[in-house]
Amino acid sequence: MALGLLLGALTALAVAALVLGPVRIPVREVVTILVGGERTGPFAAIVWEVRLPRVLLGAVVGAGLAVTGTVLQALVRNPLADPFLLGASSGASTGAVLVVVLGVGAGAATTFALPVAAFAGSTLALVVVYAMARRGGTMTTGRLILAGVAVQYILTALTSLVLVLSASAQHVRAVLFWTLGGLGAARGDSLALPAAALILGTALLLALARPLDLLLAGEEGARTLGLDTSRFRAVVFVLASLVIGVLVAFSGAIGFVGLMVPHAARMLVGASHRRLLPVAALGGAVFLLLADLVARTVAAPEEIPVGVVTALIGGPFFLWQLRRTSRTEGISG
Q1: In the Cβ-directed half-sphere of 39, how many Cα atoms lie within 13 Å?
Q2: Number of H helices and number of E strands within the chain?
Q3: Nearest alpha-carbon partner for 166 in 155, 179, 175
Q4: Which of 138, 211, 288, 299 is a good FRET partner for 53, with 20 to 30 A between their CA atoms?
């Protein structure tokens, strides 16, 4: 039921995203272009080269951020875990910016270097935050948030330093893109890598659904049932970092998708990851397409970075969730 509703919402939003924009395209024209494969009409170039790649990238990135957010919340057993708040997206952005500013490779080499650097930055940030937050064998919301904020500040300072030393207008635009997030750079020939990262990553995480469920029972309970929690966390951290790194290399750092969507998905289907992950993926795709549609149309013809829209929605949700969590745990930890 939930999957069917989300698929319907995703289809409707995809059509709306193809229709709406600075140039409004009639629905019938969009259907004719897509179904008939028309590439010569007045609107064909807009649909095929601009809007359709953007819709597909938005769906892939939204799904991937929601899936990794769901998994990170299970790994650290904390409802405030999120690729952005834990520094993973910031680490991936810093890695990608370093590749651009330092001019690593050219052409195809840069295309390969970007996701590799983003993956390295994402993994390093997650490892540092996890090590800082886990003290004496326990982890609290307060330490997790403070560690994530500290790592984000350090990475932001590093990115700013590289930018100042570079003093290039092109590099300024690149840093703004990876800092604020956006889907405007989507191209049809660059969708294969993020789509592959999403499909393979989600498939592997689905295969690990049972161990993820065991972690929800607590550290000791999972060990009693035969799960090597330390090794399992390391494997899943690397896998999540790989997905996040590839996605951020193409979309920049888009926050709060991985925080909000898992909560909504649990309300729909419960905590079992075999059911939760597909719903979270579709929910993330729906949410990011909606946010991007707002970003493109609310101030048209100007475009707001989609990361700003998700932050405006996710910030109040984060504060509400933080207040809720601190009531039972305490933030000082």
Answers
A1: 4
A2: 15, 2
A3: 175
A4: 299
**Measured distance CA(237)–CA(158) in Å, rounded:** 23
Geometric angle at alpha carbon 81, from 61 and 111, rounded to 5°: 30
* CA atoms of 35 and 56, how far apart (whole Å): 17
For residue 84, the SS3 value is coil
For 283, half-sphere exposure in the C-beta direction (CA atoms, 13 angstrom radius) is: 26
Predicted local confidence at residue 332, as pLDDT: 40
Tell me the two tokens of residue 33: 């272009």
The single-letter DSSP state of residue 126 is H
Using alpha carbons, select from 323, 318, 208, 213 the residue that is nearest to residue 260: 318
Return the SS3 of 299. coil
Q: Which two tokens stand for residue 260?
A: 């909000």
- Residue 169 vs residue 241, higher pLDDT: 241
With 0-12 / 13-18 / 19 or more C-beta atoms within 10 angstroms meaning exposed / middle / buried, residue 290 is buried
Question: Which of 43, 63, 45, 39 minimizes the C-alpha distance to 279?
Answer: 63
The tens digit of pLDDT for each residue in 87-127 reads 888 888 888 888 877 776 555 555 677 778 888 888 888 88
When pLDDT is averaged across residues 65-88 and rounded to a whole number, the result is: 86
Secondary structure letter of residue 49 according to DSSP = I
Which range is least confidently modeled, 259-268, 270-279, 296-305? 296-305
Residue 329 pLDDT class (50, 70, 90 cuts): low
Find all residues with CB under 8 Å of 180, minimum gap 6, and list them: 252, 253, 305, 307, 308
Q: Are 187 and 53 in contact (CB under 8 A)?
A: yes
Q: Hey, how many other C-beta atoms are within 10 angstroms of the C-beta on 153?
A: 12
Instruction: State mean pLDDT over 263-284.
Output: 94
Average pLDDT over the chain reads 85
**Nearest-CA neighbor of 35 among 52, 54, 23?**
52
Tokens describing residue 259: 């925080």
CA-wise closest residue to 209 among 188, 232, 241 = 232
> What letter represents residue 41's amino acid?
G
Structural contact between residues 176 and 307, judged by C-beta atoms closer than 8 angstroms: no
